[in-house]
Design goal:
The complex is a heterodimer of chains A (227) and B (566).
Chain A: H1 13-44, H2 61-94, E1 101-108, E2 111-116, E3 129-132, E4 134-138, E5 143-149, E6 154-158, E7 163-167, E8 173-177, E9 183-189, E10 201-207, H3 209-219, H4 222-225
Helix pairs in contact in A: 1-2
Chain B: H1 19-24, H2 29-59, H3 73-108, H4 117-137, H5 159-162, H6 167-195, H7 208-239, H8 253-287, H9 294-307, H10 323-350, H11 360-383, H12 385-391, H13 395-425, H14 431-457, H15 476-509
Helix pairs in contact in B: 2-3, 2-4, 2-15, 3-6, 3-7, 3-8, 3-13, 4-6, 6-7, 7-8, 7-9, 8-11, 8-13, 9-10, 10-11, 11-13, 11-14, 13-14, 14-15
The chains are: A alpha+beta (227), B mainly alpha (566).
Bound molecules: protoporphyrin IX containing FE and copper (II) ion (2 copies).
The site of protoporphyrin IX containing FE has 23 residues of chain B, from helix 2, helix 3 and helix 13.
Chain lengths: 227, 566
């Protein structure tokens, strides 16, 4: 459902979509019930000449059940939602699957810097590729990211991936994603970071394996190839 | 100590007071309430004007906004920051807690004034000072603070990051002063409710609105401490170069978030509870019904109040807290939906079997229930941690919390103003204009925020001054939704002129209220004259029953004032 508004492009996006759908159904049900009952009561008990209101304390058992039953059913709905929310959360944020590749993401006022491991797939070596506002990744590959900030809070957000994580100066936040669709997507900064917050955008390119290799080859720094 | 004050009921016929004593340095709780009301309304107008300006920029990037001009990104940030701050601290709180609390509590519990009238006066004076400081902060070098109302450091802590060296300091000072004002006010509300009730008024005879305002004050007092401590640290970071929130010197920016939201979430209930109180009074009066299960309302309020201290980190799911912690806060956040839902059900159940008269006040009270439900239900999406990964800091969140705050601070406040206007000013507001105002406000309000749920779900995130920088968001379908929202802002604002005209005209020329109890209500404020004199009651009332004995079988009249012996 949420995909009608923003398509998904990562392995866990579908889980988040389903959770949103679950909440929409359960919460939507209660919203509709409550609104319908509210409007119906206002209509049914509108003031009519000669009709007096009833005296209902709401403290007798058979009256209280009108509150207690909805209460109990909501509790059940809540337990359902909690269960799936935590399940999705655990999958996306808590348990990291083993990485096939690791990248560094650095937020700063007001740009994104990316450090990709290059052909040897090891970070911190000479063939690392550093880019600004442009990140290239290979489709169907599990990435770990190491997210940092050099000044204020930023937030690395890729709506298609259903991925969002604050970047905090002084810490390295580790997370993961696995792109599943080839294409290019917006990277947004989703935490206010000063007057340039509204221009802090980046591009994420999810390349097929061949294209990715080509891109790596053409961007590997000269000193890394000449030993 | 619920003693009668009858023995000194004659203290109000002392010497004639000068204008100065009566309106500028008043001790009368009603006048102080009015000071808070009018200051709050003026600040609300300013906050609404800000929202008009930044919404125009958002929907029509780069235009010369009428009445303002071009909006730079620095100004945009400052406008949203101060819009949010004003709406919460200088509009919602002063009106819901301070104005209604001051005006209503002594009248509704049958007291001649607050217990500490001088502290009360001091509270308003400090509040006024905070207003001056805040407004001053817009005019200093480099303008007002623009780091969002949540003021997360390091952005808020260092001028080299936020570029508003003075604005950010003055903003913080203003917030702290405002807190001091409300702490003083809160002491008064709590003490007065506990000690000055009319003879015979037991705990369960207290009108819900008084309970709600006092419980809100308790929540505020219990939660404000950590934030004030945080504010002191932030102020030191800004001014004398400490490093409480600076990671480079062993500080931690996340600490501020905990302190802020430990206060910030209960704060939501600080404004929510008084609104629920107002709505309780209005719907019982205009449906001629006893409040369904008074005790359930009270106990769910206690439960909400306590739980509200254990949900704060739902604002920080993706802020870098330990991911295991998020699970605990998901559980508490979803649990708090239960007492809130229960409260709303109780209010809806109160309508059952009623004789509902759709006065302007009642329309707004019902409008509150209808719209707040949307706000409550959409909160579940954000409390469910897994879904919040997607929604966090998008316009979906924004639409959600405006569907709680606008019903609370605007719609319920209107219900209260239409309802108590005759008591406050001795005249009636015009009902036809009131209904036009109601429908205009409802259509306009939904027109603003419904579209924003969709832009948010499509990925629009908050605090962005120009979406054309983001190719995926710069598409025309989303831009059209943003325009609908902005045009609805203008419509909503235009309909408020109907209200202001009605309010001001009726104050001086409205139909006179010739009786003390025009709505045939039960609570004690309706025993006093319209408007009540200094000292409130000619004879201090005594209480014989609860506040909601409407349509009692066997009685000819369909109401039964609390102070009537038989
Ligand atoms: C006239 C009706 C209102 C309109 C049109 C409106 C509109 C907006 C918009 C569009 C934003 C987001 C700006 C952005 O992120 O770029 C915003 C932020 C906010 N609004 Fe309102 N709002 C209104 C009334 C209120 C009320 C009554 C309250 C509270 C009692 C409130 C509290 C806030 C808060 C706390 C923020 C967050 C500020 C921030 O991001 O730091 N607003 N408003
Ligand atoms: Cu940013
Ligand atoms: Cu909260």
């Amino acid at each position: 459902m949420i995909e009608l508004l923003r398509q998904s492009g990562s392995s866990f996006a579908g889980d988040i979509n389903n959770l949103i759908l679950l909440v929409t159904v359960l919460a939507g049900f209660w919203l509709i019930v409550a609104e319908v009952v509210l409007f119906w009561l206002v209509w049914k008990f509108r003031k009519k000449p000669g009709v007096k209101a009833q005296y209902v304390t709401g403290e007798r058992k058979e009256e209280m059940k009108w509150i207690h039953w909805p209460h109990n059913i909501i509790l059940v709905c809540d337990v359902f939602i909690i269960f799936f929310a935590i399940k999705v959360w655990h999958h996306v944020k808590q348990e990291l699957p083993p990485a096939q590749s690791t990248i560094r993401i650095i937020g700063q006022q007001w740009a994104w810097r990316f450090i990709m491991p290059g052909a040897d797939n090891v970070l911190g070596t000479k063939d690392d590729i550093e880019t600004v506002d442009e990140l290239h990744v290979k489709v169907d590959t599990t990435y770990h990211y190491k997210l940092e900030s050099v000044d204020v809070l930023h937030d690395f957000s890729v709506p298609q991936f259903r991925l969002k994580q604050d970047a905090i100066p002084g810490r390295i936040m580790t997370g993961w994603f696995k792109p599943t669709k080839v294409g290019h997507f917006d990277i947004q900064c989703a935490e206010i970071c000063g007057i340039g917050h509204g221009i802090m955008m980046g591009k994420l390119f999810v390349d097929s394996a061949e294209e990715y290799d080509k891109w790596i080859a053409s961007h590997t720094p000269a000193e890394a190839t000449s030993h | 100590m619920a003693t009668t004050h009858a023995e000194h009921h004659d203290h109000h016929d002392h010497h004639e007071m000068s204008f100065w004593e009566k309106y500028i340095f008043p001790l009368d709780h009603k006048v102080i309430g009015m000071q808070y009301l009018f200051t709050g309304i003026l600040m609300g107008v300013l906050g609404a004007f800000f929202s008009y300006v930044f919404r125009m920029q958002n929907a029509f990037p780069g235009i010369e906004v009428p009445l303002f001009g071009l909006v730079t990104s620095a100004q945009y940030n400052s406008l949203i920051t101060n819009h949010g701050t004003i709406m919460i601290f200088w509009f919602a709180m002063p009106i819901l807690v301070a104005a209604f609390g001051n005006y209503l509590i002594p009248l509704m519990i049958g007291a001649d004034d607050m217990v500490f009238p001088k502290i009360n006066r001091l509270s308003y004076q400090i509040f006024l000072l905070s207003v001056v400081v805040l407004i001053g902060s817009f005019f200093v070098h480099n303008g007002g603070f623009g780091g969002a109302w949540t003021a997360y450091p390091p952005l808020s802590a260092k001028a080299e990051y936020n570029l508003t060296p003075w604005g950010s300091i003055l903003w913080l000072v203003a917030v702290v002063l405002e807190f001091v004002a409300f702490l003083l006010g809160g002491i008064n509300f709590i003490t007065t409710l506990m000690n000055s009730r009319a003879k015979g008024m037991k705990m369960m005879d207290i009108p819900i609105v008084c309970w709600m305002i006092v419980l809100a004050s308790i929540l505020f007092m219990a939660s404000a401490g950590p934030l004030i401590a945080g504010a002191a640290m932030l102020l030191f970071d800004q001014t004398i170069g400490t490093g409480f929130f600076d990671p480079a010197r062993g500080g931690d920016p996340i600490l501020w978030q905990h302190l802020f939201w430990f206060f910030g979430h209960p704060e939501v209930y600080v404004v929510f509870l008084p609104a629920m109180g107002i709505v309780a009074e209005v719907i019982t009066t205009f449906s001629r019904k006893k409040l369904f299960a008074y005790k359930v309302v009270l106990f769910t309020t206690f439960a909400t109040g306590i739980l509200s201290f254990f949900v704060w980190a739902h604002h920080q799911f993706i802020a870098g807290i330990d991911p295991r912690l998020a699970n605990i806060f998901t559980v508490t956040t979803l649990l708090i939906s239960i007492p809130i839902a229960e409260m709303l059900f109780v209010y809806i159940a109160t309508l059952w079997g009623g004789s509902i008269e759709l006065t302007s006040a009642m329309l707004f009270a019902l409008g509150f229930l209808a719209t707040f439900l949307v706000g409550g239900v959409t909160g579940i999406f954000l409390g469910a941690s897994g879904a919040d990964i997607y929604f966090h800091d998008t316009y979906f969140v924004l639409a959600h919390f405006h569907y709680t705050f606008v019903p609370i601070a605007v719609i319920a406040v209107f219900a209260g103003l239409y309802y108590w206007f005759p008591k406050m000013f001795g005249r009636f507001m015009d009902e036809t204009l009131g209904k036009i105002h109601f429908w205009g406000t409802m259509v306009g309000f939904n027109g603003i925020f419904m579209p924003l749920f969709f832009t948010g779900a499509a990925g629009d995130h908050r605090r962005i001054f120009d979406f054309s920088n983001f190719p995926e968001l710069a598409v025309s379908s989303l831009q059209h939704l943003r325009m609908v929202a902005t045009i609805s802002v203008i419509i909503t604002i235009l309909f408020q002129f109907v209200f202001f005209w009605n309010f001001i005209y009726s104050m001086f020329r409205g139909r006179k209220c010739t009786e003390n109890n025009p709505w045939k209500a039960n609570t004690l404020e309706w025993v006093a004259a319209c408007p009540p004199p200094h000292g409130n009651f000619l004879v201090m009332p005594e209480v014989y029953r609860g506040p909601y004995e409407y349509s009692v079988p066997g009685r000819e009249l369909d109401y039964w004032p609390q102070n009537e012996k038989v």
